[in-house]
Amino acid sequence: MSENDPGELLTDLSRLRRRTRAARHGYWFPLVLFGVLGCAAAPLYLASAASVPAGPGGYQTSNTGPILLGGMSMGQDGFYIGWYWTVALIAGFLLTVLWYRRSASRAGVRTPSRGYVITGIVLTVLAVVLPPLSRAVPGLFLVWAPAGDAWVRGTLAFLIIAVGLWVLVRAERSPALAVIALAYTAAATAASLYNVENLLFRLGWNPASSPFGWDWTVLPDILLPALVLLACGLGALLAQRLRRPA
Amino acid sequence: MTHPTNGLDETVHQRHRLGILTIAAEARAEFSYLRDALDLTPGNLSRHLTVLEEAGLIKVDKGYHGRRPRTWVRITRPGRAALAAEIAALTELLRRHATTSGTEADEGGES
């Protein structure tokens, strides 16, 4: 580094900052991990839809298990969706912290990931305990019930992942991750507030002609945010490999 | 108005110490990363770290990764402020230098 010329010194410092930032970036891992966990949840949603008995009395809502994470799933297997997401989210956030620690000991620079894991786990625990707690404290119902559109489809887990991602954007200080977080938040919000399968119908998709028939209609809401995460995570991994010298 | 060189801190205004603060402001950094990034010998780096730590600009945490001893460096709040002040002073110096060079060039062109 040059000592006396302020211009050269500032340029050198910028280069050091960029190099350090690139060395500590490791956000591809949580993106791929939660993308895989999202895709792995798809069979549960499919089973939940398939377990709806035929006829007008078939639409039963699952009232057991973590309701906010499982949503008002139709049929008996909706029970498992909530428990799946409880375990998957907590495991995912903890694995991400372990990943950042391992990555730090290898690279020599550490991305602060504590805020990310705390945010993710606190939101997950709140989603699990609020409904049962509301039986003891009736007023508490007013906190989560009005936001029904956000959790009724069983996609709240994707919104929790989105909040965590924004905390990670701040820790990673990465404009690329901010763009990914924006795209993912849009996908997760669309999947939570809108039936994404409607778009596919308009594009000519006809689930009735598939082996699972109309049960497939539950999948677009799940696969849209999961595949956005997976694609962005794999893209980030590839970009990181190409950027770093061998 | 004071000259921007008055904003330069003797402790910080040294290229390697400025480099250490810049890296530490970006992330908690390990001793070997700093050594490689700044191309310093371990002894030299240790001396710079001691100066910065005594000035309260960084914190040095020693620990182990398995059996290997590890030294991690993190910037403190005064360290972050000192780095920002130094960058601001350097930027101002650069701006003044550009202005002066421009004026001199104009005067040279007129004569």
Structure explained in plain terms:
The complex is a heterodimer of chains A (246) and B (111). The two termini of chain A are 24 Å apart. The radius of gyration of chain A is 21 Å and the shape is globular. Chain A has 11 helices and 1 strand, in the order H-H-H-H-E-H-H-H-H-H-H-H. In chain A, helix 2 (28-50) runs antiparallel to helix 4 (78-107), helix 4 packs antiparallel against helix 5 and helix 8 (156-172) runs antiparallel to helix 9. Chain A has one domain. Chain A is 71% helix and 1% strand. In chain B, a hairpin with a 2-residue loop joins strand 2 (58-65) and strand 3. Chain B has one domain (4-101): Winged helix-like DNA-binding domain superfamily/Winged helix DNA-binding domain (Arc Repressor Mutant, subunit A, Orthogonal Bundle), CATH 1.10.10.10. The mean pLDDT of chain B is 86. Chain B has a 3-stranded antiparallel sheet with strand order 1-3-2. The interface between A and B is medium-sized, with 25 and 28 residues.
Quick description:
Chain A is mainly alpha-helical. Chain A is built from eleven helices and one strand. The longest helix of chain A has 30 residues, at 78-107.
Q: What's the layout of helices and strands?
A:
The complex is a heterodimer of chains A (246) and B (111).
Chain A: H1 6-24, H2 28-50, H3 67-70, H4 78-107, E1 109-110, H5 114-136, H6 141-144, H7 148-151, H8 156-172, H9 175-193, H10 197-202, H11 219-243
Helix pairs in contact in A: 2-4, 2-11, 4-5, 5-8, 8-9, 9-11
Chain B: H1 15-26, E1 28-30, H2 31-38, H3 42-54, E2 58-65, E3 68-75, H4 77-110
Antiparallel strand pairs in B: 1-3, 2-3
